[in-house]
């Protein structure tokens, strides 16, 4: 893609939300590289050939970021939201394992350090969404769980938002090869890492976010609370 061809559209999410997997899906369905504000050479070596391009080169269809700083001057925002319980676990797996598809030991989900991380993670999740709802750019929310359960329609929404024409053959190919090399398989822990006091704090953050989204006439958020 020649330099300056594409608008600066960010793919924004909290770490652990499935951003890399969505990049893979977008690349397959559009045929255009995605970029990043980071310089993770492992992703470049793994096939994300736009990874090391300048974020505002105009050569990528979206640019991955986890930071509000990179969002403010974007022309559009594709905002990925995941169950904050699941994203907290996914982020610990990423930090304390050997990459995007392996797992941390169960001991990482125990003790005060884990509890503090889980609460901080969800508070940042809530803060990001509260920032998102007031930003003036054109924007689209995509839920990770909808990608899992209704990938065809979600990809159609995304392609339309990006202002591109949908190639049905590419769409079908993407649906047939939906996982890619950087989508961590699901693993059930042998215990619930979210003790009741932690769940109470997280559930309150979720309820607060839901009220903010309703206030700004955003679509109703999924029910993420846990008993």
UniProtKB/TrEMBL annotation:
<comment type="similarity">
    <text>Belongs to the WSCD family.</text>
</comment>
<dbReference type="Pfam" id="PF00685">
    <property type="entry name" value="Sulfotransfer_1"/>
</dbReference>
<feature type="domain" description="Sulfotransferase">
    <location>
        <begin position="78"/>
        <end position="184"/>
    </location>
</feature>
<protein>
    <submittedName>
        <fullName>WSC domain-containing protein 2</fullName>
    </submittedName>
</protein>
<dbReference type="InterPro" id="IPR051589">
    <property type="entry name" value="Sialate-O-sulfotransferase"/>
</dbReference>
<dbReference type="InterPro" id="IPR000863">
    <property type="entry name" value="Sulfotransferase_dom"/>
</dbReference>
<dbReference type="InterPro" id="IPR027417">
    <property type="entry name" value="P-loop_NTPase"/>
</dbReference>
<dbReference type="GO" id="GO:0008146">
    <property type="term" value="F:sulfotransferase activity"/>
</dbReference>
């Amino acid at each position: 893609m020649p330099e300056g061809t594409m608008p600066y559209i960010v793919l924004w999410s909290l770490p652990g939300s499935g951003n890399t997997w969505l990049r893979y899906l977008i690349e397959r369905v559009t045929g255009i590289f995605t970029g990043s504000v980071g310089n993770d050479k492992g992703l470049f070596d793994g096939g994300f050939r736009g990874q090391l391009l300048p974020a505002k080169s105009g050569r990528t269809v979206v640019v991955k970021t986890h930071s509000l700083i990179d969002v403010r001057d974007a022309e559009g925002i594709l905002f990925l939201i995941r169950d904050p319980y699941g994203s907290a676990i996914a982020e610990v797996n990423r930090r304390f394992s050997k990459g995007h598809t392996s797992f941390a030991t169960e001991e990482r989900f125990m003790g005060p350090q884990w509890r503090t991380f889980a609460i901080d993670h969800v508070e940042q999740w809530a803060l990001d969404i509260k920032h998102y709802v007031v930003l003036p750019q054109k924007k689209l929310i995509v839920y990770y769980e909808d990608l899992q359960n209704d990938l065809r329609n979600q990809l159609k929404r995304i392609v339309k938002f990006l202002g591109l024409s949908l190639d049905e053959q590419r769409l079908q190919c993407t649906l047939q090869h939906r996982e890619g090399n950087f989508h961590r398989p699901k693993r059930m822990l042998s215990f619930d890492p979210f003790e009741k006091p932690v769940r109470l704090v997280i559930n309150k953050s979720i309820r607060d976010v839901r009220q903010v989204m309703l206030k700004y006439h955003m679509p109703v958020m999924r029910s993420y609370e846990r008993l």
